[in-house]
Every structure is written in structure tokens, then in C-alpha cells.
């Protein structure tokens, strides 16, 4: 679940934000004081922070600067909430490291849209560029597979199947899970189809090395180095 952190001392606004964010499906962590906020940000690592400017103890600007100085937290998008509408204040907020700025009173739908937009910009998800297992290398950017340095030609379905197996070597994926993930919910395919594509995948991969795809009878498949070639038919 995606967490949104609200740092706001005004109860009415905090309640309003919490209610609406939860309605959008976010988990909300709400802090009312600056001192506690920083520790809470570190603990829950939110996807977006809604930060009020005027807070007891530490100001929103100070909190913003502190977050930006922490290497592990600095990429979390911050939306400053403030009663001030002055251009100068807005600049101050943005220089302190805020990503966006909303003036109170705000419209709830607009704020929700801003939350969503800032979340999309956040480099929060680590995108894998490649997977490797033993001598198999999947280049996820170029969409290519190599084994022992040889290019392995795979169809799109075989590529997706291999990707799934290589996400968790050793883990057994059932035919149903592979079907659902690789083919999607809407398409009707028999579970035997998985076997057909696994066979193609094996044939392509095994041209350049031993068989690492393990068949778990009546269950599914895994990739690991204890695979036996005699199960590969
Ligand atoms: Ca306040």
C-alpha cells in the first residue's frame, strides 16, 4: 500500500486530508509536530509528503531542508501546504526543496491530483536494468537475452516467462500464476499453453548451456541450477 505522510498541526485540515487520501486508497501517516515528523518520515518512507508551513517547534521549511539533506529521503516528493500566498513565500518553499506548493484553502480534488502527479514523478521504484542467473543474462532495457555471451532469440511470450522465473530464482511458479502474469486475466488460455512455451524457451536457452528450468510435476516451473535435463521434454 502506498503511504502518504501528512504533517499538519491543524486538526480540521488533518482530518480532511486523512479522510480524502484514504478514500483514494492511500495509507496515511499523520504527524502534528515538526519534531516527531522527521523520525516518522524515516520510519514509514512515504511516497509523498504533504507538509504544512506553519508548525510548532520546527517550521515546514526547516523540515523540508532536513529531509532534502538526508540521502535516503531526499527523493521523496514534498508538497508544501500553506496559508500564505505570497510569491516570495512560494519561492522560499521551492528553494527549500519542495516539489509543489498548494495554498490554503485548497480544493480537495486539485490537491488529490497534485498528490498523484508528484507520485508519478518520484523515482521511488527501482527499475531493474538486467537480471542474471548463472550464465544467463537478461537485458531488460534492450529486451535481449544472452547466454555465455551468445544472443538467445526468444519470442515475446518466452521473454516474459523467463523474466518472471528470473525475478526469483529457485521459486516455484505455478502454471496458473504464470498464465495470469504472462498472458493476463482477460485472455483465456489452457494451462497446457504454458508447457508449450516453456518447451520453446528451454530449446532456445539450452542451445548454449545446461538446462536450468526445473519442472515441478503437476505444479509448475522454476529456474535454478539443480534442474535435470531429463525432465525437459
Ligand atoms: Ca499550521
Descriptive overview:
The chain has 233 residues and is α/β, with parallel strands linked by helices. It has two domains: 3-121, Rossmann fold (3-Layer(aba) Sandwich), CATH 3.40.50.2300; 130-223, Arc Repressor Mutant, subunit A (Orthogonal Bundle). The protein is 39% helix and 21% strand. The protein contains eight helices and twelve strands. The protein has helices at residues 11-23, 34-44, 60-68, 87-95, 108-121, 156-167, 175-183, 191-205; strands at residues 3-7, 27-31, 48-52, 78-82, 100-103, 130-133, 136-139, 144-147, 150-152, 173-174, 213-216, 220-223. The strands form three sheets. It has a five-stranded parallel beta sheet with strand order 2-1-3-4-5, sandwiched between helices. Strand 1, helix 1 and strand 2 form a beta-alpha-beta unit. Helix 6 crosses helix 7 (175-183). Mean pLDDT is 87; it is low at 229-233. Bound molecules: calcium ion (CA). Calcium ion binds at residues 9-10, 52, 54-55.
Topology record:
Blueprint: E1 3-7, H1 11-23, E2 27-31, H2 34-44, E3 48-52, H3 60-68, E4 78-82, H4 87-95, E5 100-103, H5 108-121, E6 130-133, E7 136-139, E8 144-147, E9 150-152, H6 156-167, E10 173-174, H7 175-183, H8 191-205, E11 213-216, E12 220-223
Parallel strand pairs: 1-2, 1-3, 3-4, 4-5
Antiparallel strand pairs: 6-7, 7-8, 8-9, 10-12, 11-12
Bound molecules: calcium ion
The general outline is elongated
Q: Which strand order spans the largest sheet, edge to edge or round the barrel?
A: 2-1-3-4-5
**Integer-rounded radius of gyration:** 25 Å
What are the low-pLDDT stretches, counting only 5+ consecutive residues below 50? Answer: 229-233
